[in-house]
Every structure is written in structure tokens, then in C-alpha cells.
Amino acid sequence: MLESLPSPPMKHLLLLLAFSLTACQKPNAAHLEYKIIRTLPHDPECYTQGLQFSGTRLYESGGMYGQSTVREVNPATGEVLRKRPMAKSVFAEGITILNNELWVLSWKENTATVLEPATFKFLRNHTYSGEGWGLTTDGKQLIMSDGSNKLKFLDPKNFSVTKTLEVTDAGLPIDKLNELEMVDGQIYANVYMTEKIARISPENGHVTGWLDLAGLRQQLPTPNRAEVLNGIALYPENGHLFVTGKYWPEMFEISVHEK
């Protein structure tokens, strides 16, 4: 008969438990801070869905059935330089530019429209399942949000899903991911119905930082009918972000840094 082994001292058990808990903990997401560089005019009639720079040219999509448009905007003045109405049956969503093509999602119409950026000439459509919310690119693939905590990586040749990424913060899913922008190798995402932007690792989906822009709403002139923050565009000339919201009368150029 084997003799029973003595139980380890309680102190050792507590140390082992503490080590296990520490090993399982994920590092806290960084707190990101911002500085307002410029306050710029913005069309208060635009229900902003997507915002995208290509060089110094700024493109924007506006939603709502019967009112959806894609436009080129003068960022300094807010003037709409040209505009393409979308079909009245389409609710336009996020946009991005890849391979010199402008991609426009639709909310429930399961269709991505591809346009020529310089002319807004129609090139083709792609279909997909589920809803379309935000869109960005890593330079090779498209990255789409659908209002859940999942991001889909898409082959631009046929819009097939090559990877699905679940976004979490300390193990908890972050739902309602909306407008997207790739910034310094990280995905920035508006979280719908909040004034916050999540910074997400495209490798594992972990939130690596939070940017709270609630203070920008307080800067808006009144009266206004401004709704939720939405719209992130990286300005490649200086690395600043241009941000605005649905029906916001202003757009903000901000610099972002970790606290």
C-alpha cells in the first residue's frame, strides 16, 4: 500500500493560487488622451457613417434611406465638393479605399458598392451575408464590422471572409463595433451609442486602448441635433485623426497619445 503524501502547507497553496491568477490576468487597456488641433465646419445634415482620407482628399458617406450619399469634402471648410446619391433602397454605411477603389458598405442590403474615387463612377458590386457597419483596410484585405464584437477580414477580389476576429477587453466581448480606421497597425473602432473609440490589435482582437471623446460634444455649438460620435479618418500628412458624428455641425482634428 502506498502511503498518502502530506498535503502542502496552506501558505504554499495560497501562493500558487495568487500566481495562477496573476498569470491569467490580461494587461489593462491603455488610457488614450487627445488634444484638439483644429475645429472645422461639418455638414449638419450628414448622418455620418464613414470617413476616409486619400492623400489630402477627404471622403465621407452619409446614411439614411432615401438620403444616403458618398461625397468628397473640403476638410478645411466643410464644403461638399461633389456628391453621388446612393439608391433610395440603400442605407450607406462605412467606406474605405483600397487599390485606388472606393468601397461603400450598405446596412441591410448585403451589398458593397465599388466606385472610382476620382469620379465616383460605378465599377461593380459585391454581396455578403449579415449587416454592414464599418469598413477599413490593412492595405491587403478589407476589414468589416457588423455591429457585433466580430471583425471580418475580406478578400477584395471576391469579398470572401478570410478571418474572423472576436474583439474583447479583459476577456469581455465589446459589441456594437461601428466605423473603423487602421492607425499605426491598430484598428480604431467607434463603439455605437457611446462617445468612445476602441483601439484593437488585429492579431488577437484584444482592446489595447480606449479613447473617450465625450468632451467633444460639449464643444459643439447649440442648438444642434447631434447624435452619436461616428467617423474616424487618419490624416496621413501628420498622423492626426479627423473625427465627427452623425448630424454634427463640426469636425475635429485631434492628436492622440497614451496617458
Key descriptive features of the protein:
four-stranded antiparallel β-sheet; 7% helix; disordered N terminus; Neuraminidase; 259 residues; 2 helices; mainly beta
Topology:
Elements: H1 10-24, E1 30-41, E2 48-54, E3 57-62, E4 69-73, E5 80-85, E6 92-98, E7 101-106, E8 111-115, E9 122-127, E10 135-137, E11 142-145, E12 150-154, E13 161-166, E14 168-169, E15 172-173, E16 177-183, E17 186-191, E18 196-200, E19 207-212, H2 214-217, E20 229-235, E21 240-245, E22 250-258
Parallel strand pairs: 1-19
Antiparallel strand pairs: 1-22, 2-3, 3-4, 4-5, 6-7, 7-8, 8-9, 10-11, 11-12, 12-13, 14-15, 16-17, 17-18, 18-19, 20-21, 21-22
Question: Per the principal axes of the C-alpha atoms, what is the gross shape?
Answer: globular
Largest sheet: 8 strands, mixed
CATH class: Mainly Beta
- Give the overall pLDDT as a whole number: 90
Major sheet: arrangement of strands: 16-17-18-19-1-22-21-20
CATH fold node name: Neuraminidase
Class by alpha and beta content = mainly beta
Strand tally: 22
Classified in CATH, the superfamily is TolB, C-terminal domain
Q: Helix share of residues?
A: under 10%
Radius of gyration of CA atoms, rounded to a whole number: 22 Å
Residue runs with pLDDT of under 50 for 5 or more positions: 1-6, 10-25
Task: Walk me through the structure.
- There is one protein chain.
- The protein is mainly β.
- 7% of the residues lie in helices and 49% in strands.
- It contains two helices and 22 strands.
- The chain has helices at residues 10-24, 214-217; strands at residues 30-41, 48-54, 57-62, 69-73, 80-85, 92-98, 101-106, 111-115, 122-127, 135-137, 142-145, 150-154, 161-166, 168-169, 172-173, 177-183, 186-191, 196-200, 207-212, 229-235, 240-245, 250-258.
- The chain is globular, with a radius of gyration of 22 Å.
- The chain starts with 9 loop residues before the first helix and ends with a strand.
- The relative contact order is 0.18.
